[in-house]
Amino acid sequence: MDIHHRPITERIVWLHDLARRHTAEFRSPEACLARERYRALHPTAVMVLKCMDGRINIPVATHTPPGLIQPFRNLGGMFDLGWPHLGEVLAADVLRMVQAGRRVLILITYHFSRGDVHRGCAGFGYDQAAALAHCRDIRRQAEHIFGSGHDTVYPLICGFETDEDALLIHGRDGEILDLAEFAPEREAELPPRLSQLFPDMAEQMQVDLARLLKGNLRWIAQVRQTPRALDIEHREWMICLGRGFDFLHTPNLALIIGPYSPDLADPIRKAAGIIENNMRAGRIPDDGFLLYASVPFDEIGMDRARAELKSRFLADFAAGVISAEFPDLAARMHRQVAVLSWHSRELEVLAAT
């Protein structure tokens, strides 16, 4: 039976098993060596600003080892680099990469569906043009912070078509490289195409971006051989708040909200509305949903203790918003609080209610 239609208690047990398997795989010698080999061959650090929609999984869609691409998630991919917490976290991550001698590629993404506009981004009211305009605003902000010369940090607008998981790369002059129009055997055309689209991009960054795009070509070919009529519909039954949800690589499980916006209640409200609509439409059972808070830590001791308090706060805050505005849905809410070790990707559940 599909996991989306199982009772909520079985779904939660399945989720914990998924997290354990992800941790074991991440910590395996083969996976650790694969990440080190990848960094040696492709030193460009990649960060992605993206929507909370769980279908948008850039590492999977580019055949990139997990743990290498740094995600930032929020409703609709709506960000403002002036937000205090977001700006500080992004700048700190960029500085850490630069101090290690690495350049940084920031993918600023929007998403849509070619098959049905209502499988697109609910956060922007399914308005692809509005989402793209917002991406351009973020790119201008990134250039204000990191400079417009692009020698070290390159902000790049990237579309994500969710029916086939195809990337669309937006060039500086308005041209678009749509990977859905390529076949895997044409991947040799990608490097010269990137040189045309981004003449100001460092050569090594072009090489590393080309590798991501070649991986996407192979993934698109896989998707086209796999029936996924249900996978491209909204069937989320989890609201995840915080960071560290790389293990959720199964489509349409969760709506993931990063802790960045000063108005955190807004994406929580919208996520709760999507969950409620999924229940009403029969896409998921109406016996319950999971509110899951997770905060990562780098070091044991004070850093971990602070992560625990922050995770509990996020869960309590979200539960309060949902209880006030969706009382019927709140009665079916299961809550879990966790912290995550960045180094091992081990997820530790602190409380469940």
TrEMBL record:
Pfam families: CsoSCA_cat. Residues 95-173 form the Carboxysome Shell Carbonic Anhydrase catalytic domain. This is Carboxysome Shell Carbonic Anhydrase catalytic domain-containing protein.
